[in-house]
Amino acid sequence: MLFPRTLFGSLLLVLAPWVGQAQTPDAPARAHSPQVFVGVGGLFAGCPLPKGGAVNLKSFVPTLGVQLRPRWGVEVSAAYDTDYRHTRASYETLDPSTGQWVVDYGTRTSRIRALLVPVLARYALLNRPAQRFQVDVLGGLSLVHAVARQSMTAGSGEPYELGTSRATGVCLTLGPSVRYQVGAGLQVTAEAVLNRQVQSPRRLHAANPSVSAGVRYSFGSRP
Questions:
Q1: For the residues 164-185, what does the mean pLDDT come to?
Q2: CATH of the domain at 86
Q3: Is the model's pTM score more than 0.70?
Q4: How many domains does the chain have?
Q5: DSSP code per residue over the chain
């Protein structure tokens, strides 16, 4: 009976490391602590207004956000732009020699100042923090405020004010985003979203596109 005992002892010696490894509990997953991130980039955005029309912004955009969980984050951005529009317009003047109104042409100038503040949630479709390339979905609300001041220049004369109008609206913002990590905490980002006005449900508003690209840095990221 020596051979069976020897065989049994040999099997125990071979299987002991595997049995011990199987019985050893896995190390607890490291808890994710919220990480603050900042970013800066270039933005081209179209934003519809509640009473019709839209404003376009071309601006640098800073971003501040918090990565709450490996997949979930929130962020807020701000963009400001000033645009000038010149159009040829007709006007009437009174001819003192004849006492009749005469039609003439001049230049109408519109100075449009616009502010855009998106407040968005970010959800990562790929839950692989070690992977350099990430794909996200952005969704939330964007506040848009526009002030338009119009003036008229008649011929070679001095411009005179026609009036000032203001509009404030809220847009539903939704679209994809991609990120590529180039270093510890440093990522290159690109986003393409649609902005749709939600304050006037009875009016038909088109969804205006918004694209941006830039960089973002996460504080406390591990290499």
A1: 92
A2: 2.40.160.20
A3: yes
A4: 1
A5: -HHHHHHHHHHHHHHHHHHHHHHSPPPPPPPPPPEEEEEEEEEEEEEE-TTS-EEEEEEEEEEEEEE-SSSEEEEEE-EEEEEEEEEEEEEEEEETTTTEEEEEEEEEEEEEEEEEEEEEEEEESS--TT-SEEEEEEEEEEEEEEEEEEEEEETTS--EEEEEEEEEEEEEEEEEEEEEEEETTEEEEEEEEEEEE-S-TTS--PPEEEEEEEEEEETT---
